[in-house]
Amino acid sequence: MGNGAGRAKRPALSGERILRAAVELADRDGLAPLTMRSLARHLGVEAMSLYHHVASKDALLDGMVDLVFAEFHHPRRGGDWAAELRLRAHSARAVLLRHPWAVGLMNSRSAPGLETLRHHDAVLGCLRAAGFSVPLAAHAFAVLDAHLYGFVVQELSLPFRGPDEASGVTARILGGLPPGALPHLVELATQHVLQPGYDFGDEFGYGLDLVLEGLERRRAAEAGG
Fold first, then answer.
1. pLDDT digits (tens, 9 = 90+) for 162-177
2. Separation CA 26–CA 21 (nearest Å)
3. 210 near 147, Cβ under 8 Å?
4. Cα–Cα distance measured from residue 130 to residue 216, given in angstroms and rounded to the nearest whole number
5. Which among 7, 18, 151, 168 is least surrounded, fewest beta carbons within 10 Å?
6. How far apart are CA 148 and CA 128, in angstroms?
7. How far apart are CA 68 and CA 218, in angstroms?
8. What confidence tens digit (pLDDT) does each residue in 89-105 have?
9. Phi and psi dihedrals of 194, rounded to 5?
10. Chain centroid to CA 28: how far?
11. How large is the angle between the packed helices 134-157 and 81-98, nearest 10 degrees?
């Protein structure tokens, strides 16, 4: 039997394989430990071989962000603009919770990839087709993204994951307060946070509805002259 018999053949190295492996590592370990050397080790190749496909660490990050943007829903033109952008926002939040390392990178790239730019163009196209002027579309895009990214940053920084953990953390905080202290926080906790069915994640949809309703008023006012 030859030396190579029974040995699994590795898939050919490619830019896409490198980027997907980098996303996998970042999802598992975060961004800080990700280096070209650790990525090469994960792929079972020499670090220098990566540079035949990805020019630099910055190019690697550009490509990783592009893969994340490709997972976002791209809103369609000509339909219900608010429904399309609501779907895009919920889709993007779910994607970012799967890839938490990406939140701070999404709009940081000076050499964005094609999927990133296609996503941005789709959002703007949806707004423009709905009658938003160019300046109002720019304002709308900015405030929608501020809500999306700001909420996800807050969500990821909370000291709990999910309603069950939220109840436990809240109860421990309340248990350490002197009697009669902080009445408004106690009221919020007991009458809202500790009630059955509470989920902090639901606040995302509530805030998004407020943003979309406000944008519709601005759009209608602009259309009415």
1. 888 888 999 999 999 9
2. 9
3. no
4. 10
5. 7
6. 20
7. 31
8. 999 999 999 999 999 99
9. -90, 5
10. 16
11. 30
Angle at 155 between CA 151 and CA 156, to 5 degrees: 120
Percent of the chain that is helix, strand, coil (3-state, to 5)? 70, 0, 30
Q: What is the pLDDT of residues 73-86, one digit of tens each?
A: 999 999 999 999 99
Q: Residue 170, Cβ neighbours under 10 Å: how many?
A: 19
**pLDDT confidence of residue 139:** 98
Write down the pLDDT at residue 45.
95
Instruction: Name the token pair of 81.
Output: 């603009």
Q: pLDDT at residue 225 above 80?
A: no
Domains in the chain (CATH in brackets) are 11-54 (1.10.10.60), 55-158+200-224 (1.10.357.10), 163-192 (no CATH)
Q: Is 183 exposed, middle or buried (0-12, 13-18, 19+ CB in 10 A)?
A: exposed
Average pLDDT over the chain, rounded to whole?
94
Instruction: Report helix, strand or coil for 201.
Output: coil
Question: What's the CA gap between 187 and 190, in Å, rounded?
Answer: 5
